[in-house]
Every structure is written in C-alpha cells, then in structure tokens.
Design brief:
The chain has 28 helices and no strands. With 559 residues, it is mainly alpha-helical. α16 runs antiparallel to α17, α22 packs antiparallel against α23 and α26 runs parallel beside α28. The chain is elongated and about 85 Å long.
Length: 559
Amino acid sequence: MNRIAAVGLAILLFLLVVLLYLPSLQNGFVWDDHANIVDNRELRTAEGLRRIWLEPGAVLQYYPLTYTTFWLEHRLWGTHPFGYHLVNILLHAGAAVLVWMALGRLGVPNAWLAAAIFAAHPLQVESVSWASERKTLLAAFFSLCSFLAYVRFAGFRSGAEREKEPEWVFYRLSMGFFICAVLSKTVACTLPVVFFLLAWWRTPKVTVREVEPLIPMVLISFVMGLTTMWVEERMGSQGAAWAFSIFDRVLIAGQSVWFYVWKLVWPFPSIFIYPRWPLDSAWRLVFPLAAIAITGFLWVRRDRLGKTPLFATLYFVVSLSPTLGFLNFFFMKYSFVADRFQYLAGVGLIGAAAAVSGRRWRFALVMVLAGLAPATWQYQKAFQTEETIWRDTIRKNPGAWMAYNNLGNELARRGNLQDAAGYFTESVRINPDHISARINLGNALWLMGRAGEALDVLSETARIWPDHADAHFVLGTALAQSGRAADAMSHFREAVRLNPDHADAHHNLGVALAREGKSREAAIHFAEALRVRPDFEKAHEHLNRILAELERPADGRTP
C-alpha cells in the first residue's frame, strides 16, 4: 500500500470513529467523574499538580499522567463536560488508527476492518463515554505507541527477517511510551509480557537478546504495581467484599475470561454494572478448566496450527490479568467484570478472527461492523446524566444495589425525596450491608420530616457498624438538630476519632462545643476542619469569630 492510500485510510478510520461517538459530546458527568473532575480540589492549583505526582493517595488513584490531563483541561474549559468527552473521543479514534498500524505491521489480513470493529464495538462505549475512563484510553494509546516502537526496535516486521542490529532509538521511544502508559493506568504493566510473547511468536527461539531489553520494563511494572496495590488498599479494597480464597479467585478468573470472550461475540446487552455471580457452585470450575484445556490444546498443536492462535489467546488473557480477580481492586465490590477492563485485550481475538477470515469472509466482517455500530451509537445515550446511567443499569440488572443508591442520591439532590427514599430502601433490601444506602435513607427520612424513623435507621446503622465514621457523623447531625447536644457531641467525637480527616465532623463538633461555651476546644476542631479542607468557608467564619472572642488574631492559629 502506498503512503497516500495509507494516510487516506487512517484519516477515514479516524473520522468514522469520531462520527460514531458524536452522541457522547452531549453527555454530562456520571458517578466518580465528580470526585475525579468536578469536585477534585487538586485540579484547581499548581500545588495540586505537585500532589498529583508526588503524593500517592492525593487523588483516588495514582495515575498522575491521567490526572495531569484533567488538570490541564480544567484550565481550558473548567468543569464543562464537552471538552473532556471530546478528548476521550479523539484518543479512541487515535487508538483505532494505532491498532490498524500495529496489526498491519504484524501482517494481519483485514487489519483495517479489525481496527474498525475494535473501535465500533459496544464494549468500548464505557471507556469512551465516561469521562473518568480517560485513564484506560490514555494507557491504551501510549501502550500502542510503545508496541509499534518496540516492533520496529526488535525487527518483528511483516514478511521480514529480524534485523542484524536493533535500532536502539526505537527502544528508547518504546520505553518512554511505556512509562507514559503505566503513569496513565497501571494495567499497562502487562506490556513487557506482551513483548515477550511477541518474541516467542515471531522468532524460532527466544534468547537473551529478546529478554534483556524487557528487564527495565519489568522493574518499572513491579514498582507501579505495588504502588497501585497500596492505593487500592487505602481506598478500601479490603474486607468481606474482597475476602476470597485462592480457589474462589481461580473461579472468578476462569468465568471472567469466558465472559469477555462471549461479550466480544455477543455484546448485548451492555451493562454498566453486571451481576456479580455467586461462587458457591462447584460446577463453575468448568470455566478455568476449559480455558486451561484450550490453551493446552493450542500449545500441543502449535506445529500444526501455527503459533498465531496461541499468541492471540495468551495476549487476550495476559492483557486481562490485572482485572481477573487475582488481585483486589475496588470495583470487585460491585461486579467481577466490566466492559472497560477488556478495552485493549479484545484486539487479540478480533485480530485473530480477521486473520482467519481472509478475503472470502471480508464481507462478513463488514456486516459485523454494520451490526455493532448502531448498538454503540445507542448505548452512549445511557451516559448522558446520573439518572440515565443508573436507570439503564437497574433496567438491565435489577440486582445492582449500588445503582439504586446512586439513583436515590441523584433524585434527593433534585429534591425528589419520596422517590429517593424508595430507591435507598430497595438498595438496603438487596444488600442489607450497604451502609451508605442506610445513611442516605436516614437522611432522606429526616429531610422529609419523619424524624423518628430517621433516628431509628441512623441509630441502628451506628450500632451495627460502630467503626464507620460517617454513620456516627450523620447520626450526630440529626441528634444535634433534635436538640440532643450531648448525644450529638458523643457521636461527633467518635467520628473524628475513627477518621481524623473528617472535616465535616470536626466542624459540627466545633459548632456543638461552641454552643456549650467550650470555645477553646471548638477552635481546635475548626482548625482541624481547615487543615483537611482549607477552602471550608463556614469553618473559617466560626474560627475567626471564636478567635475574636478570645482576643486572638484571626490568623488560623489554634488557641
């Protein structure tokens, strides 16, 4: 193919992807977009940028390059969602072009159609239409750049023998792109394994020459992996919801692999939160055993079938491995699987299918593409608002307890407390251990004027979960508004003991203490609230007023 034709096809693919995802430009922010973008204080200052890079835990996940893009965009268009969605679409379109280039470089037939199917598949909507999934898109984009540079470095080109001398400038490029990928999302840590598999696939025998360049990448992956595990644990990825035995995790991994295979073949319906299947049935062992059996068959028959089917299979599994359940991650609390987890992994099986199809089945690939695109166009509309995404999730997965709670939050925010309370109640019915839904139900009942019921719900929550700071904080707030100051202070004290960084609990305790005439102690808690949240205006006002009463300068020093 000449250069002009290649450029033309690249532009065509890019534009088709952009056109397909135009509905996403009308979407707003959903779920943790608010924590990552809208309410993220670190995006507002230069100091925030320093913390994003140098203080793991300053933001929800240590993906500093991803948050840097948010930081830059915050200066361009603030918290307007259009710009964030536009960048996501452009990254996805760019990734589609890179997928075509990568498959073409490896000599895969029908590479352009495979890349188009990759881009138009409904499984990709979640990664593109959800602003917070910038991390997946950015990591994939840089991973593909690293892959292309590494192929050039190692000489794994279509129809060509390995070069006599590696081109080390491309190795340095590959390393740079790889570092950018893992700083965008740690899932890119699997890339060195992919490069090793590539060497096994494209060479008669893997030697030290192929392994040595991967060692620095493996070390970087190890460090970033440990960092991510620490941050995930700090976020709360531990406890009963993640208490799985090794056997359980094997069952999760085995069924997850087949889930993603099936969703690539038949992606209907696409669900934001899929049901989390039970692990109490021994028959589920068939999934990991079947995966092992097929992999073993492809290994034994590699001389007859060639290495390509096994390479595609191993690439698929390795790319999925960080989210197969062997390691804890927060979303496992809700489901073991998600569309976004397979964003780049699916390229392996899609590419293999395209390679097997050849010229005779090219029309079939076009039909597949035509069938997928309308579903992708339609599913983007589910991400328009908080209400649309949670209603869509509940409709498709009535057991998604978290969706009921989040829909209730959105309705409560808009003043529809009656319906909100109903959704909170349903969330608690499905999952009686969902503390946030219980607290939200108590809040809604209180705001509806049903004080007795609210206090019953909140008191029971604090009794069952005595180590939950928010349970004590919300109960304390309700008690304070009921005139039970002493009881309220007791729960506020417990809240700040359990969570010393609970700014609202410090503030409310300070207010209660000030009303009791304990100004010096109140000032300490107002100062603590400001330590945690420097822009807490009410805490500033109360602290300044108390300091004035104590004839202290209003400079924020505690008495």
